[in-house]
Amino acid sequence: MRAGAVSLVVVLTCISLSRPGAADPRTGKDCSDFTNRFCGECLENINCLWCSVNQRCMNYPVETIIPSSSVCPLKEARWAVCWVSFESLIIAMSIGVGLTLLPFVCCCCYCCCKFKVCCCCFCCKKKSSCPDEEDLKLARRKEERRQRSAQMKSDLRERRNEIRRKYGLIQNSESSYHRLENEL
């Protein structure tokens, strides 16, 4: 609904550029001159709003952007064309703006994820390329565990080699242990 409000503001800004309450330059008549006449005659002046309930033509209330229900209910208000109510016009403009913005947002999210440049929180679940403090701490712990594991493997290998030397299982070693051979 936010996009519809934005589009409505743009349209109504165009209205506010013309002087509200001013007479139609072509006919020289004010909006109230078309009360109890036809909708088409009233809406020839872009500054006019037609209310179908009481067949009243009035100046468009540009101060409030959307006319209040005390002026005329939105279902019965007409502006610019007689065949579309103001309520339908707002809904159609909202849908149009939404459908225009949706592909743009999807394209931005696709490009952000494709090139691994996260510019918003909802686009991709991947983390950005820069590591944060927690990632660095986890990497440090992982490296410490890897080094401890390597040290333990090295110590275990050394103990096994020492046992092999003791019992003479390693042939080309200069160990302090010698095999006792019977000289019989």
The averaged pLDDT comes out at: 78
DSSP helical segment count: 4
- Helix content range: 40-55%
DSSP summary, beta strand count: 4
The CA-CA distance between the termini, in Å, is: 106 Å
User: Helix-strand pattern, N to C?
Assistant: HHEEEEHH
| Rg (CA only) | 41 Å
Shape: rod-shaped
Give the uncertain stretches in residue-range form.
12-22
Summarize the biggest pleated sheet.
4 strands, antiparallel
Structural class: alpha+beta
Major sheet strand order: 2-1-3-4
Strand content: 5-15%
Q: Would you give an account of this structure?
A:
The protein is α+β, with helices and mostly antiparallel strands. It contains four helices and four strands; from the N terminus they run ααββββαα. It has helices at 2-17, 39-42, 86-114, 133-166; strands at residues 48-51, 56-59, 77-79, 81-85. A four-stranded antiparallel sheet has the order 2-1-3-4. A hairpin with a 1-residue loop joins strand 3 (77-79) and strand 4. Helix 1 crosses helix 3. The longest helix has 34 residues, at 133-166. The chain is rod-shaped. The relative contact order is 0.08. Residues 12-22 have low confidence and may be disordered.
In short:
The protein has helices at 2-17, 39-42, 86-114, 133-166; strands at residues 48-51, 56-59, 77-79, 81-85.
Strand-helix topology:
Layout lengths: L1 H16 L21 H4 L5 E4 L4 E4 L17 E3 L1 E5 H29 L18 H34 L18
Antiparallel strand pairs: 1-2, 1-3, 3-4
Helix pairs in contact: 1-3
